[in-house]
């Protein structure tokens, strides 16, 4: 027996990871995912654990090598979209990433910014990043993604409002939606910034 859910996560990493682990606790294992759908099958409650990894900064070959590495460790991986992009057709522009990964195409890393990682809940640690410097670097990439999304959203809205005429009602509705989304992106940016600061302070303590 399988269950299918339609979901979109603005909090693409923590929110999605929390939900997948909640489903696993109820006895549902993820077997397939698309841009907006998740398909589960029954399993023993808490039989599996999930992590959602940010991999948008990896080249296509690097991503495949990473998936192969995880498979050799006994993990199951599923590529997932983050839905934070500004593009036309099968091309995404991602200015917050390192040189060489700013543009994603299909075939390639288009709509593969995230990696859902599944592990048998056997009591062994399930941390993808353990070194403080690695954690800070990883969190910084995520923070920059949300920060750029916030800035680009504001910029595009300003340009659109100036360029196109619209009724006051429509204009206010658009600005209201943008304000809510911008506030969320800013909140996530601040949250990751605080986490980065925390790990940097912890590193100083142990040095």
Indicate the mean pLDDT.
84
Provide the spatial order of strands within the biggest beta sheet.
1-3-2
* Amino-to-carboxy terminus distance: 52 Å
* DSSP summary, beta strand count: 9
Q: What is the domain tally?
A: 2
Strand portion: 15-25%
Order of helices and strands: EHEEEHEEEEEHH
Largest sheet: 3 strands, antiparallel
Q: Give the count of helical stretches.
A: 4
- Rg estimate, integer Å: 19 Å
Which word captures the global form?
Answer: globular
Fraction of residues in helix: 40-55%
The low-confidence runs, each spanning 5 or more residues with pLDDT under 50, are none
Question: Which class best fits the helix and strand makeup?
Answer: alpha+beta
């Amino acid at each position: 027996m399988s269950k299918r859910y339609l979901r979109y996560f603005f909090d693409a990493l923590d929110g999605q990871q929390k939900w997948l682990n909640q489903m696993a606790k109820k006895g549902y294992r993820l077997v397939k995912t698309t841009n907006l759908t998740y398909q589960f099958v029954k399993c023993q409650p808490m039989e599996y654990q999930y992590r959602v990894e940010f991999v948008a900064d990896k080249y296509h070959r690097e991503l495949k090598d990473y998936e192969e590495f995880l498979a050799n460790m006994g993990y199951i991986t599923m590529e997932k979209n983050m839905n934070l992009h500004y593009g036309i057709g099968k091309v995404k522009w991602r200015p917050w990433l390192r040189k060489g990964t700013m543009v994603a195409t299909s075939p390639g890393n288009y709509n593969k910014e995230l990696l859902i990682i599944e592990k048998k809940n056997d009591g062994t640690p399930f941390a993808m990043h353990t070194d403080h410097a690695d954690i800070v670097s990883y969190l910084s990439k995520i923070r920059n993604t949300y920060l750029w999304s916030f800035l680009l959203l504001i910029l595009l809205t300003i340009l659109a409002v100036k360029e196109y005429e619209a009724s006051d009602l429509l204009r206010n509705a658009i600005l209201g939606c943008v304000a809510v989304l911008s506030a969320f992106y800013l909140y996530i940016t601040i949250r990751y910034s605080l986490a980065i600061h925390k790990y940097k302070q912890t590193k100083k303590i142990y040095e």
